[in-house]
Amino acid sequence: MAENWDGNYDPGSQSDESYHLERMHIEPIYDAFVCPLTKQVMRDPVTLENGQTFDRESIEKWFKECRESGRKLVCPLTLKELRSTDLKPSIALRNTIEEWTSRNEAAQLDMACRSLNLTSPESDVLLAMKYVQHICQKNRSSRHIARSAGLIPMIIDMLKSSSRKVRCRALETLRIVVEENDENKEILAEGDTVRTIVKFLSHEQSKEREEAVSLLFELSKSEALCEKIGSINGAILMLVGMASSQSENVLTVEKADKTLENLEKCENNVRQMAENSRLQPLLTQILEGPPETKLSMATFLGELVLNNDIKVFVARTVGSSLINIMKSGNMQSREAALKALNQISSYEASSKVLIEAGILPPLVKDLFAVGANQLPMRLKEVSATILANVVNSGYDFDSISVGPDHQTLVSEDIVCSLLHLISNTGPAIECKLLQVLFGLTSSPSTVLNVVAAIKSSGAIISLVQFIEAPQKDLRVASVKLLQNLSPNMGQELADALRGSVGQLGSLIKVMSENMGITEEQAAAVGLLADLPERDLGLTRQMLDEDAFQIVISRVHSIRQGEIKGGRFVTPFLVGLVRVLARVTFVLADEPSAIELCRKNHIAALFIELLQSNGLENVQMNSAMALENLSQESKNLTKLPDLPTPGFCASVFSCFSKQPVISGLCRIHRGTCSLRESFCLLEGQAVEKLVALLDHTNEKVVEAALAALSTILDDGVDIEQGVMVLCEAEGIRPILDVLLEKRTDNLRRRAVWVVERILRSEEIAYEVSGDPNLSTALVDAFQHGDYRTRQIAERALKHVDRLPNFSGVFPNMG
């Protein structure tokens, strides 16, 4: 056949292809068939008055050009003027041409059929398919020829070719063959052809992807094929990817998008698009579809897993519509709307959109409603979940009316209703409602309202009981809520936990579980840490239940790397250190606390924790604990037994000098150790505390300074304490704390320490010329509280800035 096709054919050029296809003839072409103007076979031959024959279209165009240019009407061949432009159809010639054309087309079609197989040369296959395109494009009604000749299955087979050019030409030819022809589309859709076409969407070559998506676009115009395309695994996913691609060419993106628009006719396709983040069709159905479709799509929306950005988009698009369905629809519609709202409310930004759309009043109404129209308990659980999501968005709920009498979520009667509901529902709803209260107590602007309602209703006992719930989620929710309440209800919580009911033991048990660090453990430790540290009864009960022994073990495990990191490690460690520190607040009243600290070398542990860089709360609480331990040192140091003075010593003063005893603590004047008497000097803690004076966190600095002040306190050798600070190079950092004036508490503490330091004449002399120090002390003297002004006065006297006679204030003693 190759010798029968035009040997000069170039398959790469569209213009050449069109030219050659017009001239591919099996029978010889006669000159009478060719129009003198176009040099192409005439379709509608007509004769002029002079007997010359032209194709009607070309000669009419010639006449038009003559008139428009103002020239005489002449024959294009003879150039002689014509009297008339009448055109006489050459019927006989036209019939002859049509018969000749039909014979040629049939022969050429037969050759194309014989060329369309995988063993033919590539050039023959390409030319054959181009000829099929030519036949179909020359006359749209002739597309049946391809079907009648059985060409469609042959072209489909070409999709298996190893030649990229052949595959692309096959996709292109199939598109032309099925254009506006439903019968051809039905034939193409038989078997796995559509699946094969879809596979081309993932090919590496962009030309194949472009041709495949163009063919799918044409097929998608048939409603009957939309479902079939959508049913092919991955089809819609790939089309959605192409429609949103930044790397595909514009035509491919546009065709993919239009294909998806056609596929929206089928509900299953709309669902698949939504699963692949093309949600607008589904949302449009919720907004504009018939009731059954709205219900179906809302139900499906509630089952989707959406990313956060999509949740915001959905909330803005259909949030109001879903809220209206939730308020006024039948029970089935309300359920679908609630589940959809539950899905999109789980992100802070989308929750705020729903709040502004008015979700709160109907939610609260559904939760509290009783009677015939009330929601079943399973849907009340969904409502409670949505409310928990919404409340934890951080919105200002004190300004949103949710009740008929303009109550807000934090109005006392609404909070009391929530508390009542918590006591009269199942665990699932209880958990969500506790999360609602947790959200309301997480904001400084609303926590006091909730606290007032809990106190007035006496609900704290009921809330504490959830600590022992068998459901983990319920326990976590209750502990997190109680932790939020503890700054304002610390004593009430301590009273409720103290005793033999078991809640305190439950918290300790949770803390001791050795299976990583969970949110429940971090919350339980956080709650224990927030309880009043000076509640002696609570601390004694914790001692009795070995709580501190467990804490010590867990701290060591974390520091030794035995517990792997996670997002709850830091809050868990901070809580443990705070819980352990509370034992140091009762040392003076509880001997067993001292024994615990000695046995477990607690002072050494806190000194190590001072160096927990990056964990400011750990450092601060460790310094506070060391302050408490060091305060007790002067009571625990073992003073030496001095011999009773003899008769000579009482008579002669030269014999009254006390013997010198070596090995005594310079500060406490007795036998000290870090383990037994918690001496900071013996534990080499002074240098580490001095290092914290340069910390950026004022509370860490204040705690470190408070711990250091214990070596200058009454009852110790202040002069030696100052010397210890000198040796640790701590004098300058302490003076700097005073000069920086960071907070009132720090200034108050720094003035006290500086006054003690300035009792050393040598140091007072050395710093007396520092104008900054004098200015800071004068400022404290003028603006501090009563006690600070007294201390500042004495400090100024040390540096000779005030006369050393009757003070402005009475002597303090």
UniProtKB/TrEMBL annotation:
One MF annotation (Gene Ontology) recorded for this entry: ubiquitin protein ligase activity
Reactions it catalyzes: S-ubiquitinyl-[E2 ubiquitin-conjugating enzyme]-L-cysteine + [acceptor protein]-L-lysine = [E2 ubiquitin-conjugating enzyme]-L-cysteine + N(6)-ubiquitinyl-[acceptor protein]-L-lysine
Keyword Ribosomal protein included in the entry's annotation: no
CDD domains cross-referenced by the UniProt entry: RING-Ubox_PUB
Domain U-box: start-end pairs: 28-107
Entry keyword set: Repeat, Transferase
InterPro entries, per database record: ARM-like, ARM-type_fold, Armadillo, RING-Ubox_PUB, U-box_domain_protein, Ubox_domain, Znf_RING/FYVE/PHD
Membrane-spanning intervals of the chain: none
Repeat in keyword set: yes
GO biological process, one term: protein ubiquitination
Pathway recorded for this protein: Protein modification; protein ubiquitination
Enzyme Commission numbers on file: 2.3.2.27
Highest taxon, organism lineage: Eukaryota
Protein name: RING-type E3 ubiquitin transferase
